[in-house]
Amino acid sequence: MSFFSESLEALVSSGLYRSLKRIESAQGGRVVIDGRDVLLLCSNNYLGLADHPGLKEAAISATSVYGASSGAARLVSGNMFLHEELEKRLALFKRSEAAILFNSGYSANVGVIQALAERGDTIYSDRLNHASIVDGAILSRARLVRYPHRDFRALRCLLENHKGNGRLLIITDGVFSMDGDIAPLMEIVALKKEYRALLMVDDAHGTAVMGSSGRGSAELIGVANQIDIQMGTLGKGLGSFGAYVAGSAEMVDYLRNKARSFIFSTSLPPSVLAASIAAIDIVESPEGDRLRSSLESNRALFSGLLSRAGFDTLGSPTQIIPIIVGEAEETMRFSRMLFDQGIFVQGIRPPTVPSGECRLRCTVMATHSPTDLEEAAARIIEAGQKIGLV
Asked: Which residues of 14-48 are buried (b: 16+ CB within 10 A; e: fewer)?
């Protein structure tokens, strides 16, 4: 038996084997899987922009003018007008001096952290930060100090006791992707000032969604102008693809010269760039306000129905609503039962979440109808009762 087959069998026996479901339609509130129309409750397309006519038209138009590819890394020959235009728009959107594009959130975090920290520096990272942050910290060779989730008091102690002589970098998600809660940014900003640290916030799940104008979790909390490095993605609330980092012009120029994932990657294609610009236009418009209002209404409706039924949703205040199940096999059985009922929601297992904390990760969209969410909640409650969860 080969290494691969042995490893795959071990995954199957532990309930951790993963497979793909093929979606045969655009990413909307409902999708077609294997010829069936199902309610999509596990997409990060929070505002429903992925199949918005404005984004599709912009992508088609850009392709007809600029072609299908940028052809190279931007420092070689792949820097196009649309790259610079989108970066200008993102800087204005984030109210920062400048912004720089990356090909994904993972690429952004790995590239930025490697560029900012090195051996002799110390990185302080929330224990539930995204895997790309952990990987970036490891690749940087800096000392990695992980603090208990959202515990700014513990962070203070660690800053005091593990200062070292190098640069200090605090990194936190803005909205945590699996628990759906929000970082205590006000308190963390105070600590970064006190200890003269740099602060990086990964706001992948807050961009376009959080704050009065969709500028993210830092806008929601009122500290947007006090964060050194603001990272966000274009492929979730903005419905497109890629990622950005916003901050000072000097910092962005530094990343352009030092971030390996920027330097050595073929850049985003014209269609994606144009769709992202169109998405920012929508987010900043009255339509964006309406979509955020619908998202919040849907979140409150769905979360309230599940919480009142007795599910543990960790008190999430965002569009990410976990249902804690416990063990992997039970979680996947729950997910399969719901799919049979026409609801697609993924089970989340280690290493994404700790052992014993497996869950269904439900995400609502602005474009879900209240009726669909009420029916989905009823079916989730019924299935939860069958497996003895509520």
From this structure: ebbeeeeeeeeeebbbbbebeeeebbbbbbbbbbb
Q: Residues 42-98: pLDDT tens digits?
A: 999 999 999 999 999 999 999 999 999 999 999 999 999 999 999 999 999 999 999
Is 236 among the catalytic positions?
yes
Domain assignment of residue 158, yes or no: yes
338 part of a folded domain: yes
Residue 168 β-bridge partners: 122
Which of 229, 264, 283 is the last residue in one of the domains? 283
CATH number at residue 117: 3.40.640.10
* Catalytic residue list contains 132: no
DSSP characters for 101-147?
EESSHHHHHHHHHHHH--TT-EEEEETT--HHHHHHHHHHTSEEEEE
Asked if 259 and 317 sit in the same domain, the reply is no
Are 269 and 314 contained in the same domain? no
209 and 159 in a common domain: yes
Confidence of residue 163 (pLDDT cuts 50, 70, 90): confident
Q: What is the pLDDT of residues 182-194, one digit of tens each?
A: 999 999 999 999 9
- Write down the catalytic residue from 205, 240, 267, 368: 205
**Choosing from 52, 83, 94, 236, which is the catalytic residue?**
236
Residue 1 lies in a domain: no
Averaged pLDDT for residues 245-256:
98
73 and 217 co-located in one domain: yes
Total domains, the chain: 2
The structure's pTM equals 0.95
Question: Any catalytic annotation for residue 177?
Answer: yes
Same domain, 189 and 312: no
Crossing angle of helices 105-116 and 131-140, in 10° steps, is 30
Alpha helices in the chain (DSSP H): 3-13, 53-66, 81-94, 105-116, 131-140, 152-161, 185-194, 217-221, 249-258, 260-263, 270-283, 286-309, 328-340, 370-386
Domain ends where: 247, 265, 283? Answer: 283
Q: Is 123 within 8 Å of 169 (Cβ atoms)?
A: yes
**Domain assignment of residue 31, given as a range:** 17-46+288-386
Token couple for 208: 């376009």
Q: What percent of the chain has pLDDT over 90?
A: 96
Of 70, 96, 132, 177, which one is the catalytic site residue? 177
The average pLDDT across 249-271 equals: 98
Which single residue is written with the structure tokens 């740099």?
A: 198
